[in-house]
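Our consortium's second objective concerns turning raw sequence data into structural hypotheses that experimental partners can test. To show how far this objective has progressed, the report includes one record in full. It was chosen at random from the queue rather than selected for favorable results. The single chain below, 253 residues long, was entered without modification.
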Amino acid sequence: MNNMLGYVLGAFLPLALVFIPREWFLTFGNGTTQVPPVRLLSSREISLYDGEKSNKGLYLAILGQVFDVHKGHHHYGPGGAYHFMAGRDASLAFITGDFTERGLTDDVSSVSPQQLIALYDWLAFYQRDYKSIGLLIGRFYSETGQPTQALLQVQASLAVGRQMKSQREAEKERFPACNSEWSTARRGRVWCSTKSGGVDRCWTGVPRKLFSPGSSGVRCVCVRDPSAAEEDPNLQKYDGCPPQAESCSVAEF
C-alpha cells in the first residue's frame, strides 16, 4: 500500500508543480508575497498627465496620492468642469472651491480640523472609484515615498476633527435641536416634540439656548431636565418659550 501511495504521489507532484499558480510559491515559500514598489512621481511628471501636454492620460493627486481619472475624462479632460484638477495636487481647492491658480495648491495648512474630514472624504472617493497610481513627491511624500512632516501634521489635525465630530454627535443625542416654524401671523416660535433635530425620543423637554464650546454661535436645543440644565453655564433659558416637559419611563441620559 505504501509503495502504491508513493508511486501516485511521484506521478502527481510534477504535474502539480506545473499548474500551481506562481503566487502560491511567493506566499508559502517565505511566508510573504512580493509587493511591487510604489510608483513615485515628480510634479513635472504628473503635469504631463493633464490631457493637454501629451497623450499619456489623466492623473490628479489629492493629499499626495495619485489617481488615474481617465475614465472620468469628460470631467477632468480639456473642456471638462474639473479639468483644472488634472496634472497636479490641488487639495485645497476641494475645500475652498477656489479654482484660480492661487487656489489650486496642495497647501492645506489653513484648513480646519473639521474641513479635513471633508477632504479625506474626497480622498476616500478617489480610492474607491479610481485606480491608484502611486505617490507624488513633494509636500506630503519624500523622494523615498515616506510621509513628510506636513502629512503627519494633517493626520494629527484630522484626528482632532474626528474627535470634535464625535463630541458634536454625542451632544446632538443629548440635546436635540428644537422644532421651529415661522408665519406672518404668529411670527417665529420654537418648541420641543418627541422627534426633533433628527432624534426620536419619548420625552419632549423644554427649549434652551446652547453655547457649544469651540463654536461662535448658539442654537436652540431640547433639554429634558430644566432644573439640572440651569446648572450648566453653556445652557440658558430660551425667552418666550413655555415649558413643555413630559415624564418618561426610560432611563435618563
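The partners drew two points from this record. The two ends are 73 Å apart (CA to CA). The helical segments are 2-19, 22-30, 43-47, 73-76, 93-96, 113-129, 149-174, 226-229. Both points have been shared with the crystallography group to help prioritize constructs.
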